[in-house]
Write a structure and sequence with these properties.
By secondary structure, the chain is mostly helical. The protein has 13 helices and no strands. Helix 11 packs antiparallel against helix 12.
């Protein structure tokens, strides 16, 4: 009997020890994300941070929609991409529609970019190269975040390499600069086209001459060009002038004169060009 009691006590202790070990293993088991979230949501400060995050996402979505409606797809895409990466615990019902809409918008913009690629291809087939370049530039400028951009860059490069198309590409780029308000870049593009003997007698040269005359004959345009050219010269001319003076200090007047002449030709009518011209006169 005593032996039976001892065996029973030993068995009980063994079972109890096993139960304790199992309980300890359960306690030592890493908590799931759901368990951690349930515990965290009991903290009022944590709940407040979650609510603020949700409000920030709503604000971001509103900003994205405004940019999208304005046609500013670059900024809209940045907002939409941020939304698709968002994760707000226990608020999935609130953000799921926003994430879905953001994804749909990104797909919509990708489709728009692909439409521009197809339009460029159609224009190329129709030999309307200026229009083809315009469509490719739209992809590069407005949809740089899409898969269509590398294709647009590649096609534009291919167009530039074609001798019969290069003049049209250059004109289209100058025209795009004019449309963007960069009149200095536009005039340089038009003038480079006119001065290139390779393109003599072509339609783009005729159009470029016409744009140069139009820009130079309009008083408001002339003032804008002068202002932009001065601003550009303020950034770019000083290093060239410093290089020219270094040549003078090292007894290299020919190289110095070349740099001074570069400033005169590249930034005509600016204070830097006047300064460079005076230096050229001293070297005569």
């Amino acid at each position: 009997m005593k032996m039976k009691i001892l065996l029973s006590c030993a068995l009980f202790c063994l079972v109890s020890h096993s139960a304790l070990q199992a309980e300890q293993r359960r306690n030592d088991k890493p908590k799931t994300r759901a368990q951690l979230l349930r515990e965290a949501m009991k903290d009022p400060a944590y709940k407040e941070r979650i609510n603020r995050s949700l409000e920030d996402l709503k604000t971001m979505q509103q900003a994205a929609e405004v940019k999208f409606e304005e046609g500013n797809y670059r900024e809209a895409a940045a907002f939409y991409k941020s939304i698709t990466l968002a994760y707000v615990p226990n608020m999935q019902k609130g953000i799921a529609p926003m994430i879905e809409q953001a994804r749909e918008r990104l797909i919509e913009m990708e489709n728009k970019a692909q439409d521009e690629l197809r339009a460029a291809e159609d224009a190329d087939i129709a030999r309307d190269y200026i229009k083809a370049v315009e469509h490719l530039q739209i992809v590069i400028r407005d949809y740089p975040f899409t898969k269509a951009k590398p294709t647009a860059v590649s096609r534009l490069s291919a167009l530039k390499s074609r001798k019969d198309v290069a003049a049209y590409v250059q004109f289209a780029e100058a025209e795009a600069a004019e449309a963007a308000g960069d009149l200095v870049k536009a005039l340089r593009g038009y003038q480079d086209l006119v001065d290139n003997p390779r393109y003599e007698g072509t339609v783009p040269v005729f159009k470029a001459n016409r744009r140069i005359k139009a820009l130079k004959s309009d008083e408001s345009t002339r003032d804008a060009v002068k202002e932009q050219l001065q601003a550009t010269a303020d950034k770019e001319a000083p290093p060239i002038l410093n290089t020219a003076r270094n040549f003078l200090m090292n007894d290299k007047p020919a190289q110095a004169k070349e740099k001074f002449r570069m400033v005169v030709e590249k930034y005509p009518g600016t204070t830097h060009a006047e300064e460079a011209q005076k230096e050229i006169e001293k070297l005569k």
